[in-house]
Amino acid sequence: MGYAAMTENDVVYGVFSAPDHLEHPAFSGDTRTTDERMTEYFNGLGKPGLARHASYNATIRGCFPGVGFIYSEALELFHEPQPHASWTLEQDGTWQPPHAAPPGTGWEWQEVEQAWHLDIHLADETSLQELDGVGASTAAAILAEMGERGAYRSLSDLAERVDGLGQATVDAWANAFVRTPE
Q: CB–CB of 16/3 below 8 Å?
C-alpha cells in the first residue's frame, strides 16, 4: 500500500510504500491504527511527520496524493491545494469556482475580476462562440486562420487577419485575451 508522508500542516511531502505486514497489528492488543504504525515506521526511517494510508486506485481517501496535496481530516481525503481564494472545497475533494466556466476550452479563472476569460490560442469553436459577434462560421475562421498563419500577436492582429471581424468587435471582448507566444 501507499502512504503519504505529511508535514504537521497535513501537506504531503512524499509518497512511499511500506511492507504489507506493517498494515496489521504487531501483537495481540496492539491498538494503534495503521496510520499510527506507519507514522512510527517512517519516522524510524528518517521521514518526519505523519503518515496517512493512500491507495493507487483512489479507493482510500479520495485520490492518490501527490507532493503538495493536503489531507483534510474533516473530509478524510486528500485534495489539491486551493487554486484560488474564492473557490470552495466540495465533499468529494474537488474545488469549485464561484460560478461554472462557460462551455468549450481555453477558459481561465481571473480571481481579481471573479470572472472567466478566454485565451484565444486555447479556444475551440464552442468557446469562441461565447464571444459577442462570433457565430459558428467566424469561430471556424478564427481557428482556420490561426492554423494556417500561426498564433495571433494580439486581439488587433486577430481582427486584421479574420474576415468579418473588426476592431470594434474585438474591443468589446472584455473577457478574451491573446497570450503572446514565447
A: yes
